[in-house]
Write a structure and sequence with these properties.
Elements lengths: L8 H9 L5 H19 L2 E4 L1 H16 L10 E5 L26 H9 L2 E6 L33 H9 L4 E5 L6 H7 L2 E4 L20 E5 L2 H11 L29 E5 H5 L4 H16 L3 E5 L7 H16 L18 H12 L2 H14 L5 H24 L2 E5 L15 H6 L5 H5 L4 E8 L5 E7 L5 H14 L10
Parallel strand pairs: 2-3, 2-4, 7-8, 7-9
Antiparallel strand pairs: 1-3, 4-6, 5-6, 5-10, 9-11, 10-11
Helix pairs in contact: 2-3, 5-6, 7-16, 10-12, 10-13
The chain binds glutamine (GLN).
The site of glutamine has 13 residues, from loops.
């Protein structure tokens, strides 16, 4: 028999409705699991057990009064870059190590209104810059499938927590792959919604034109349940798009027969890893057996996506991170000689090496005389990539491609080689550049037993199609049901 922490949110919600269990029981089960394995994995920056139990008691009262919503009483963890009033929100950086936001991000407000139990905040790469969760000021998170391996990043804590049963579901953020990559590496499901579908209000900014919040969970059904809560217009975020967002759960059982999936040759030409190749082949086979047809496509500007991203994202970061000066909040150096020296020392001591690299790259790319050659050119490439995808979606309903070029790698393996680390995101970054929704789901395992994810991409605001395709896949496969033996 499964312990409560092992169930999906959808199943637990049913059990709450039939009174087979209570939110307090579920929450205690997850908290015990955290006690048992957190020391090995370090998924969390902060856990608030007493408060979680209080929220669970409140959820049980709501459920008893018949006032429950679909996910009332389900325990969640949020990434440590989402403002949570009164709780430390550090972005895994020393410069924010003591920052307690005076307000809730919109997603946290929505979770509270739903009556979800917030367990704590999950570990991440510092300011979400990274692909491995190794740049965290609090130390790395480990992959539950093999603790010598990285969990992917930057939402590594969020993905590892779901895989290990340290949370039922979580939220992550994705600027260049940070939900999909760790979901793939930890054997769970994760979706980056369309840019503008989920409010960024209260999400600590990395690269504002790319950042997007999304769900990480054990299956497509839970992803849909979370999308139902977090998608929606928010007047507090000027890039949030007002439209009618559907009930995503309605797409879970729609047949995929007759759908057309595009296979962009630029994605597959790059694939060298035999395990990833095998998983992609198997995935095609599954979809073919479901009555899906395939069309070969070309996205001619894809090869420039990574380079353009590493101009745009650091440029925006260099501007966004200018606010950390030791004056208004966060870390301030202890010894300094005057105001300018205080700024310099606070930033020198407060930021980690990767964040400094991005600030320098971005400042350079935006500087007078270089702006046209770098930033402006990258912005033009971004438009070309968006147009490539637009054309592709005239021929297909969705795109299938790998999430990462390889299975998870060893802790430390790429830390001294930033370019190798950046290349991990070669399949996820183009999706952010075009603002599209993308989803990673478990597709199989490497010969060493490490999870490998497949990626589905749809046109703007077609998240429901991704739910439909991933749900159909999960009805035919059991990769998403496998658990690491910790
Ligand atoms: N690895 C990419 C970066 O470091 C993407 C990170 C993210 O999506 N937040 O920029």
């Amino acid at each position: 028999m499964l312990a409560l922490y092992e169930y999906t949110a959808g199943r637990l919600a049913e059990m709450l409705r039939t009174k087979e269990t209570s939110s307090v029981e579920i929450t205690r089960s997850v908290l015990e699991r955290i006690d048992a394995v957190e020391e090995k994995l370090r998924c969390y920056v902060t856990v608030s057990p007493e408060e979680a139990v209080k929220m669970a008691e409140e959820a049980d009262r709501r459920l008893a009064a018949g006032d429950g919503k679909p996910l009332t009483g389900i325990p969640i963890a949020i990434k440590d870059n989402m403002c949570w009033k009164g709780h430390r929100t550090t972005c895994a950086s020393k410069i924010l190590h003591n920052f307690h936001p005076p307000y809730d991000s919109t997603v946290v407000r929505l979770l509270k209104e739903e009556g979800i139990v917030i367990l704590g905040s999950a570990n991440m790469d510092e300011f979400a810059m990274g692909s491995s969760t190794e740049t965290s000021h609090w130390g790395p998170t480990r992959n539950p499938w093999n603790v010598e391996m990285i969990p992917g990043g930057s939402s590594g804590g969020s993905a590892a927590a779901v895989a290990a049963g340290e949370a039922v579901v979580t939220l992550g953020s994705d600027t260049g792959g940070s939900i999909r990559l760790p979901a793939a590496f930890c054997g769970v499901s994760g979706m980056k919604p369309t840019y503008g579908a989920v409010s960024r209000y209260g999400l600590v900014a990395y690269a504002s034109s790319l950042d997007q919040i999304g769900p990480i969970a054990r299956d497509a059904r839970d992803i849909a349940l979370l999308l139902n809560i977090i998608c929606g217009h928010d007047p507090k975020d000027s890039t949030s798009v007002p439209r009618d967002y559907p009930n995503f759960s309605n797409s879970l059982d729609k047949p995929v027969k007759g759908m057309k999936i595009g296979l962009p040759r630029e994605f597959f030409d790059k694939l060298e890893d035999p395990d990833v190749n095998r998983v992609m082949k198997d995935a095609r086979q599954i979809y073919r057996s479901l009555g899906v047809s395939f069309v070969d496509l070309s996205l001619p500007h894809l090869d420039y996506a990574l380079a353009a991203y590493y101009i745009i994202a650091p440029s925006e970061a260099s501007s966004n991170l200018a606010r950390y000066d030791g004056v208004k909040y966060g870390f301030r150096a202890e010894n300094f000689d005057g105001m300018i020296d205080m700024y310099c020392r606070s930033r020198a001591e407060g930021f980690g090496a990767e964040v400094k690299r991005r600030i320098m790259l971005g400042t350079y790319a935006l500087s007078s005389g270089y702006y046209d050659a770098y930033y402006l050119k990258a912005a033009k490439i971004r438009t070309l990539i968006t147009n490539d995808f637009r054309k592709a979606f005239e021929e297909c309903d969705a795109i299938l491609c790998p999430t990462a070029p390889s299975p998870p790698f060893r802790i430390g393996e790429k830390m001294d080689d930033p370019i190798q680390m950046y290349l991990t995101d070669v399949f996820t970054i183009p999706v952010n550049m075009a603002g599209l929704p993308g989803m990673a789901i478990p597709g199989g395992f490497s010969s060493d037993g490490l999870p490998i994810g497949i990626q589905l991409v749809a046109s703007h605001f077609e998240e429901a199609r991704l739910v439909q395709l991933s749900s159909a896949f999960q009805k035919e496969t059991d990769h998403h049901l496998k658990r690491p033996s910790l």
